[in-house]
Write a structure and sequence with these properties.
mainly alpha
Length: 188
C-alpha cells in the first residue's frame, strides 16, 4: 500500500477507483511538500529571532558596567564591589525614607536616582498639599476606611445575626416592618 492511502472494501483504495486520494485537487505528495516548506519557513523565522536575541545578550554582556573593573581583578573582588554599591544605595534609600517619608512613599526606590534637593522640595510640596506645612504630623487621626465601624460610648453592643436566637430575629423583623412599609409607600 502506498503512503497516504488507506484500505477499503473496494479495490484496496478509499475511493474504490484505484487512484490515489487527493485533497482539494492536490496529491498527497504536494500537500506534504507544502507543509514541509511551510514548517521550514517557521523554523527559519524562529532561528532568526533566536539569533537576534543572542546578539542582544552578547551586546549587553559586552557593555561596561557602571563602575569599570580594574584590570586583573578577581571575580570575588568584583562581587564585593557590586555588593558595596548595592549597600550604599540601600543606605541612601534608608536615609531618604527617614528624612523625606512622603517623597519616598510616592516614588518608592526610584528616589535614590534623584538629587537630595529635589527630594526635599517634593517632600515639602506633598506636605503642603496634605495640609501639614513643614511635614508636621496631621492634627486629626487618620482612620482606615477598611477598619470596622466603631460604636460610640454608651451604645449597647449589637450582636451579629448568626448569634441571635429565632425569637430575637423575629422581633428585629417586626421592629423593621413599619419602616420598610413606609419606604415602600414613599417609592410608589
Amino acid at each position: 500500500m502506498t503512503e497516504g492511502t488507506t484500505p477499503s472494501s473496494e479495490g484496496g483504495l478509499p475511493n474504490g477507483t484505484g487512484e490515489p486520494v487527493t485533497s482539494g485537487g492536490q496529491s498527497v505528495e504536494e500537500v506534504e511538500s507544502f507543509w514541509r516548506n511551510r514548517q521550514s519557513g517557521a523554523d527559519r523565522a524562529h532561528a532568526a529571532e533566536v539569533a537576534q536575541l543572542q546578539a542582544q545578550i552578547r551586546a549587553f554582556q559586552q557593555q561596561p558596567s557602571a563602575t569599570p573593573a580594574p584590570s586583573g581583578e578577581s571575580t570575588e573582588a568584583a562581587r564585593v564591589r557590586e555588593l558595596e554599591a548595592e549597600n550604599a544605595a540601600l543606605r541612601r534609600f534608608n536615609d531618604f525614607s527617614t528624612k523625606y517619608p512622603d517623597a519616598v512613599a510616592l516614588l518608592g526606590d526610584q528616589v535614590t536616582a534623584l538629587p537630595e534637593e529635589k527630594i526635599a522640595a517634593l517632600n515639602a510640596r506633598i506636605a503642603e498639599v496634605d495640609g501639614t506645612p513643614g511635614g508636621a504630623a496631621p492634627s486629626h487621626p487618620i482612620i482606615d476606611p477598611n477598619a470596622a465601624p466603631r460604636r460610640p460610648a454608651g451604645m449597647p453592643a449589637v450582636r451579629p445575626d448568626n448569634e441571635k436566637s429565632i425569637d430575637e430575629l423575629t422581633n428585629d423583623l417586626r421592629a423593621l416592618a413599619p419602616a420598610y412599609q413606609e419606604m415602600v409607600r414613599e417609592t410608589r
